[in-house]
Design a protein that fits this description.
This protein has three helices and ten strands. The chain is of the alpha+beta class.
Amino acid sequence: MRHTSDTIRIDHVVIAILRHADQIVMVQQLTPHDHQPYWVLPGGLVEAGELLTEAIIREVQEEVGVHVTAIGAIVGVSQIDRPAQTAQTLSFLVEVAHWQSALQCQDPDGEVHSVELVAQEEAISRLQRNGAWPGMRELLLAYLRKEVQAGTMWFYRERADGQQLLGTLPPARNA
């Protein structure tokens, strides 16, 4: 969802971790601006009038085709200040505690091309190769590697040379 504070646009993004045993659900995306497909976790922008929990349920249904019946812990929050765009992005990463149905892509935007359940180590490997924003990817990778506790907040500022980590709360061991 795009909000504004004075003249700064604020985008809210949700990203969901869906597990089955030691496997994680991943989606392969290709947007009009991308040169090749890449693997990420299901998620996207919170829509106007939508609560974060509603956005998680909707995004998972659209991209993965399953019904979320319980949302679990907040994995972390990432705030990315993007002064060149007079914008900020707040990303909320959450564990989905329970879901049901078979995996199937139902993305109305046509950006998700494939859905897979992969071993956690393979998910980490795919996410490392992904060109996604460091402000979202680094938090997720640190959590999956058990380098940070659930609920950690990450703070980034985007400059001409990319997104730079300013710090975490509580302090991350490897931040």
